[in-house]
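RETRY 2/3 - previous attempt timed out on the joint model. Re-submitting the same 480-residue input unchanged.
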Amino acid sequence: MTSWLLLAAAGEPAGGLFDLDATLPLMAVQVVLLTFILNALFFRPVGRVVEEREGYITTSRAEAKQKLAQAQRLEADLKQQLRDARQQAQKLILAAEEETDLLYRQALAEALADANASREQARREIDSQRETALGQIRSDADQLGMLIVNRLLAAS
Amino acid sequence: MDSITSAASVVAAGLAVGLGSIGPGIGQGTASGGAVEGIARQPEAEGKIRGTLLLSLAFMESLTIYGLVVALVLLFANPFAN
Amino acid sequence: MVPLPLALPFAALEVGQHLYWQVGNVKIHGQIFLSSWVVIGALLTFVVLGSRKLDRDPRGLQNLLEYLWGYIRDIARDYIGEKAYRDWLPFIGTLFLFIFVSNWGGALIPWKLIHLPSGELGAPTADINTTIALALLVSLAYFYAGLSRKGFRYFEYYVEPTPIMLPFKIVEDFTKPLSLSFRLFGNILADELVVAVLAFLVPLIVPLPVMFLGLFTSAIQALIFATLAAYYIGEAVHESHH
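RETRY 2/3 succeeded.
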């Protein structure tokens, strides 16, 4: 490679595939210039935009994550509250049911007692009426017997 | 340039390209086969395997290109011409 | 150094003919500079148009620019490392963009419509001067990167695993620019030659697949050049012991 460089510098520029001359350093300078121009026009601004966006995305994602965590916490809170309320309601319902049951039983017992009492009274009344009626019938029968005996006696 | 030199140059150019492509051809075949095996075994590593494969294929390819460059020198910039 | 010694059947191809310009007392290849100015002009126009109104919500060309930026950033970051890649991103990116636009411009722009007195326009990267210039820039860049980051400790890299490696590492410093420049030059020139030969033999349709293959190879070569430049710089700035 170096020998070609020397050859190219020394020899006549007669053409050829491997003709090295001042094109080489000038092209190198051109490419270095292009590097600086592209750095100013392309790599730096586009890199800044892309990295800004990446930063923006990272922060927004972090924010979103924070918000999501907050929302999840709130959700958990609300769920807890809901569960508490449901338990309370369950308890209330249970208590109310027990109370109703109790009341129902009491009412039932009272009604039964009432019914028993009135039945008892009715029976007693019936009994006493029957007694009286029986007594009356008996006395009536006695009187009637007496009357019959008297009539028979008087007739005979 | 006399006819012997030009005949020898043309034959040598053909040999340079022809012989120079045998070894890299075998090597590229082996490398590609290995890469395909690797992809078949681990399909999720395909991107990485492909990058490495391209790079190593280019290295092997450059050996052929050296032969081609020698052939081009012999054909178009023959140092034995005068 | 010898103008077309052989009368080949595709002598219509002008290989190794240059349009010489006299600048001071040196000669330069005019056609290379003309086509490289077209390439640089296209690149700058694209960049200026795209970055005229940069916004957080990208619109139009800005998307493409940002995609390119991210692509180049990934190359630089993967091969140079998280710490130093910012300094070298513009260099790697300029290499990639310049080589890519040169290669595709050489294949896609109908240069033949413009007649020069001597030589013909084409991809600037199909000339050995351009590729050696780029490769030497890469060499300077990795030396500068290593020396500026590590000072004279950079030379520890030459005896890094064992001192036996010293001659190999020194030879490597010469083969790196050699292989970089010849790979790019050979690939692009080979593409142009193959397309030209096929177009000379069968002018219609038949060269098209080869042209598409050439476009693919050109893009890959630009990527390879940028990747290797990044890899060499990364190797130079890499701290092996913490």
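Residues 22-237 of chain C form one domain. Closing ticket.
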